[in-house]
Design a protein that fits this description.
Layout (H helix, E strand, L loop, with lengths): L1 E5 L5 E8 L4 E6 L15 H7 L1 E6 L17 H12 L5 E6 L3 H10 L4 E7 L16 H12 L1 H17 L1 H9 L4 H7 L2 H8 L5 H12 L13 E6 L7 H10 L3 E6 L4 H18 L5
Length: 288
């Protein structure tokens, strides 16, 4: 079910609500540049029903159908999520951030820990200000993502072109995308469920550019302030969020637990292991 709530400043947050309305709530934060439809690449009603959870996937400001917010910071997300949960009358919930959604799950752990049952970071990126953490990444992706900071107009132009290619020439888009992936990710991405989910992602170029810029720039919150347990999943063959990034998060977050999967990549990790990840998240409740 697609829904929209209003925030105190009149902005709108769009979301997709799946599963048992009486089940344990998991808020899923998508990657970049992406949007709520991303969840379809790894999830389906059968998995959600089997686990008896309520999965809510939220479009961040300026992404999908959510309102653009030019002056936002990553820390503002915690306030938005708190109001979002209050509006839906959800007292406690888990947060799960994938790739570029990782920082948004982390900021909730830092700023609103009393509302959380559990926290998971999957293949999470970190800001690009530490060059040592960029070693081993796909350099084409690094260059494109850096445009969000260095040349925002060019980023927006390229993003629009990619969107048009995916819409009108999906086979060509798929061929180009597969050429940039590690073999384990390419194998997963070429399945129709995965690439169709990515092709269906919507969002304005302006909103995607700002979201990417915030994630890759120095964050406005301190990971060391997180004092609740956090589960981290990291693939050894990930060239989009490097193993070095996963180790960095594990060092900075004092109560983190690293789940290192040496044979998984950036996309294959979540697609191949989502049921285990979701079960771990809903079974781990440190705030009752």
């Amino acid at each position: 079910m697609r829904g929209i709530i209003s925030l105190p400043d009149s902005r709108k947050l769009s979301y997709i609500d799946i599963g048992d309305k009486k089940g344990k709530v998991v808020l899923y934060f998508h990657g970049v540049p992406s949007a709520a439809e991303e969840w379809n690449m790894w999830g389906d009603d059968q998995i959600i029903s089997k686990l008896g959870i309520r999965l809510i996937v939220i479009d961040r400001p300026g992404v999908g159908l959510s309102s653009y917010y030019s002056n936002r910071r990553i820390s503002d997300w915690a306030k938005d999520i708190e109001h979002f949960a209050d509006t839906l009358e959800i007292e406690k919930f888990s947060v799960l951030g994938y790739s570029g959604g990782g920082p948004y799950a982390a900021v909730c752990a830092a700023l609103i820990p009393e509302r959380l049952r559990s926290v998971g970071l999957i293949s999470s990126v970190v800001s690009f200000d530490n060059e040592k953490l960029l070693e081993g990444l796909n350099q084409g992706n690094v260059q494109f993502l850096n445009l969000a900071i260095q040349k925002p107009r060019l980023f927006r132009f390229i993003y629009r072109q990619i969107g048009l290619l995916g819409r009108f020439a999906p086979k060509q888009y798929l061929k180009r995308a597969l050429s940039t992936f590690e073999a384990v990710d390419a194998e997963v991405f070429q399945t129709s469920k995965v690439h169709n989910a990515i092709f269906s992602v919507k969002g304005s170029a302006k909103g995607q550019q700002l979201d990417t810029k915030l994630i890759l720039s120095p964050w406005d919150f301190d990971l060391k302030k997180i004092q609740i347990p956090v589960y981290i999943w990291q693939g050894g063959r990930d060239h989009n969020a490097s193993p070095a990034m996963g180790r960095y998060l594990n060092r900075e977050i004092s109560k983190s637990t690293m789940n290192f999967l040496p044979e998984e990549g950036h996309i294959s990790l979540i697609v191949n292991n989502i049921e285990h990840i979701l079960k771990k998240i809903v079974d781990s409740e440190y705030n009752e």
